[in-house]
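User: Sequence recovery, please. Input:
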């Protein structure tokens, strides 16, 4: 596991950010007028600027970070929001376990269905 390089990802008004982004997803949802009482599993993601590739590495990342998922795409948006002190929340559904690469084990249909149901619940106050 690479060590912190001792320089921040970004400097904000509240100080430099190194390895963790202090974002409050529920507050972000609320600030956007969305239903933050949706029965979501809430937690962080770990970015590895790539994929874990093996189940062993995925489990190690989980132990080290406490993250519920592996996430590459959302980190840049979260970092930008933190730099600008904007509310941020990312809603994801998972189609496969981290470290599992064979597409035959993915369940994209279930992930898409879960995302649709979650989006409906989140946006209910605006409809």
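Assistant: Recovered sequence (127 residues):
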């Amino acid at each position: 596991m690479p060590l912190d390089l001792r320089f921040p990802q970004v400097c904000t008004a509240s100080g430099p950010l190194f390895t963790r982004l202090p974002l409050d997803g529920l507050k972000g949802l609320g600030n956007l007028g969305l239903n933050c009482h949706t029965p979501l599993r809430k937690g962080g993601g770990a970015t590895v600027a790539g994929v874990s590739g093996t189940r062993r590495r995925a489990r190690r990342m989980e132990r080290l970070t406490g993250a519920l998922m592996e996430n590459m795409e959302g980190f840049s948006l979260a970092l930008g929001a933190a730099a600008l002190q904007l509310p941020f929340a990312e809603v994801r559904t998972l189609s496969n376990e981290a470290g599992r690469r064979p597409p035959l084990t993915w369940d994209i249909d279930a992930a898409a269905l879960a995302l649709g149901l979650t989006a409906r619940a989140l946006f209910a106050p605006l409809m």
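DSSP finds four helices and four strands in the chain.
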